[in-house]
Description:
Layout: H1 8-29, E1 34-39, E2 42-44, E3 47-56, E4 61-66, E5 71-79, H2 84-106, H3 115-125, H4 130-143, E6 156-164, E7 171-179, E8 182-183, E9 187-192, E10 196-198, E11 230-231, E12 235-240, E13 247-253, E14 258-264, E15 282-288, E16 293-297, E17 307-311, E18 316-324, E19 334-340, E20 344-349, E21 352-354, E22 358-366, E23 373-377, E24 383-387, E25 390-391, E26 394-395, E27 399-404, E28 408-410, E29 422-423, E30 429-431, E31 443-446, E32 453-456, E33 470-474, E34 479-483, E35 501-504, E36 510-512
Parallel strand pairs: 2-9, 10-12, 11-13, 21-27, 28-30, 29-31
Antiparallel strand pairs: 1-3, 3-6, 4-7, 5-6, 7-8, 7-9, 12-19, 13-18, 14-17, 14-19, 15-16, 15-18, 20-22, 22-23, 24-27, 25-26, 31-36, 32-35, 33-34, 33-36
Amino acid sequence: MSVVIPSCGRLRSLLVISACLFAAATVQAQHVPRIGYVYPAGGRLNTSFEVVVGGQGLDNPIGVVMSGRGIQAEIMEHIKPLSAQMAGDIHEKLREMQTKMKELRKDGKLPPTEILPTIRKLLQEAELTEGDLRRLKEYDRKRNDPKQQLNAQIAETVRVKVTIDERAEPGLHQWRLRTAGGLSNPMRFQVGQHPEIREAEPPLEFDFEKYNGYSLAAKKAAKQVEITPTFTLPATINGRILPGQVDKFTFHATKGQQVVLAVQARSLIPYLADAVPGWFQAVVSLHDSSGHELAFADGYRFDPDPVVFYKIPDDGDYRVEVHDSIYRGREDFVYRITAGELPFLTGISPLGAPAGSKLDITYAGGNLGGQNKVHYQAPDHAGIVSLQANRGPWLSNLIPFQIDTLVEEAEREPNNSLGGAQEVKPPVIINGAIDAPGDADIYRLKGAGNKPMVFEIFARRLGSPLDSSLTVFDAEGKQLAFNDDHEDPASGLTTHHADSRVSRYSFLPDCLG
């Protein structure tokens, strides 16, 4: 290799370039952060609370980037999991501390008031922090639980203090963790309206107050007392399912209340890293005070997140139970349950409108308080918007609504026979409904040969439970094309693309769809 020695001026340029390349290599050496869960996955307006973010490559966390306004986040602590050697070293230091404490207590040199200060002094001399003890306690808990599966993809955690003020908009937000290595993938974070409760989990804090001088390490075989948190309707429940766990919550209700239990689990984290199957399938049930099951759900229509609707028969206490369908669990099996006599939309009609138009929309659902028809002003731009009902201050779930620029026409019954087909002129959007089992809507239109025509159903993608099929006939009733399900990559994470689509280039002048 030959080396060329440049002039001083060029040397300075090369030095600058070398410095830039070195800086770029340093940045590249940083691990790009990847987060697997945020727990709890939301909070209430005008509250402050602690959130745990789990993932990997989370060194040197700087802050949180959140969509929307009114949400502030402050990094509190980054916790990396202990290796077996590190845990052994800490245990050895604790044993040495334990020996010193026994000697001091045996000689009567340590009055009760000096126990806690002495422990803190010994920890400092051993170069141990409270964070080290929390990490050790978590390490021992997982190591001594045969059902726990260690997963490097969610082994690191970052504690974050979150404050949501009145400017924040209720609903879904995007959460990203920012570290020295870059910006993480997004996680979903919900801003709610109702009081929030959290399941009772074993604390990770080291309890110095209960230290008796003989056992400084976390109790490894202590039996956990089952605690069933009690809440008042309406409320939002936050929890996460560990292996084999069934979370239980109790509330009081009065006769006649139409209670809704709406679970968010798959909608928060659609897929879980290194889990088989790769998602959390939540199951929710409602029980009376005697333990009898009153209602059960493991999904809602085509949505894997369950919803329970139940009319309370008598005044009393009722219990909500939630678990994974096959009793798996891990720290990223995160859920939220909105519970109460709250508005819930099961459908709307029509499913869309022309841009800039004014129309009446019919709402269907429960606890709507008479809000069954709403006058709506459509925005001036095409796209998918979200609609929701309200009952007093409470907002319902969201329903998608399609805004388009094409002419729209309503279905006119009867149109369920070839002879009674409704005539339409393309391009057009038809708003219709399958009213009863066996119903089929038929439309007649004129086409031009050798010119492309597309027939497409938008139902499931707009929240309708319809699983459509689409058939095209010629004027004589001969079938030209058929489709049941058409995969739409733009429709998001879904396991069943149930909407139909037909695209052809050579229809006869008259055809039926």
